[in-house]
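Would you mind writing out the residues of a protein together with its fold in token form for me to study?
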Amino acid sequence: FPDAIILAIVLPVAFELPKTDRRIIGHFAKLDIHGSFDTAKKLFPGTKRVYVVAGAHGVDRSVEAQARRDLKNMENRLEFIYLNHMPFEEMLVAISSAPPDAIVLTLAFSQDVNGRTYTAPIVNQRLSQVSPAPIFGILEHTLGYGITGGSLINFELVGKKAGLLALDILGSGSVTEMISDVL
């Protein structure tokens, strides 16, 4: 199907679509990392350390890079400990010794530095089993797996938006206007 339009969904904000003759429509995920962090700080105002858990896959690293940009203005007030350079088992050890003034912020995690793959719910569940600190995240589907909360992206709504975009591409008229009603 060389003439088929490609709808690429949930792309990281800094992701560059490939140069091609194909028509690719990108939907870039708006991860509210700062919102998750603000929620954590409101609930735990005495926080002095933030353990940031992210994977080593390219997408995981791009989300971590966004977090570093979004949270840069806090670095003079808080200690940020980024753990993506460690195998997941070592991350668990580091988190298990978090002091009382710490929080954990989990980002995208699909693969650790050893190439082992994980799902976000499993990562958060395992972290919650060892963490003395509250865990905040960015993905709604990790609720119920150990996170306290955060400003969470909902993939069901992203899927609905993708479906509406597909209908719009197929010529169903004013579907674009309905997208904002769904989100």
Q: What stands out?
A: The CA atoms of residues 58 and 111 lie 9 Å apart. DSSP finds six helices and six strands in the chain.
